[in-house]
Amino acid sequence: MPAAPKSLKRYRELSDKKGRAEHGVFLVEGEKATSQIMASHPDEITEIISVIQPPAALRRYPARTVTESQFHYISATQTPQGIAAVVRLPQDVYTSTLPASTGNRILLLEDVQDPGNVGTLIRTASALGFDGVVLTETCADPFSPKVVQAAAGTVLSVWLRKTAQYLVLIRSLKQNGYSLIAADVHGSDEPSILSNQKKPVLALGNEAAGLSKELLALADYRVRINTPPDKAESLNVAACGAILMYLSAAT
Length: 251
What we know:
four-stranded mixed beta sheet
């Protein structure tokens, strides 16, 4: 006898961190984002949920067809696109253990709380060749629906660590040859310093408060993107991050 289909409530629970942890999966919504996950991490997709038959490329996976109202019930987005992938959560994200291979470029997000900013920064990090992203405990969760939507299917393209012990990780990285570059509105170093760093950790802070004193004390450089004060005091954290990551990637 075939197994009974999973309840719709189970999929709906994936919009919550507790539900994702319990089931070990998260949702990626939209055909473009789903196709991106399939292209980069095809073995992590466990199921496709859709209102109509999935595109040919996605038919290799177990599929469940639902009605539009059922998909609205499952979806956490305001304008559901009618297709989603159920994707395995990567291991070790919520630990303070760095991966065996950390790569050369790392992004640190300290208390960045807006899911759109976090998702956009993860997407930019992936596009510009960063290897990993460290997030503090109070950052938006990288697998929440709004972050995943803003990341546009790239959330598995970099390693992620979300931990309250981020300062311990930073100290460990510095001991292994990384330079901590802090984006600071009061900084005195030019952003061009990034083009000379072989192994940078680029730190971006909270949308309102910026970086903490503890993290700034660890910084090797404190860079500022100058903006005309009569126009704008500073840039949005996602825009600032994009500029600085581009400069770093240009090495």
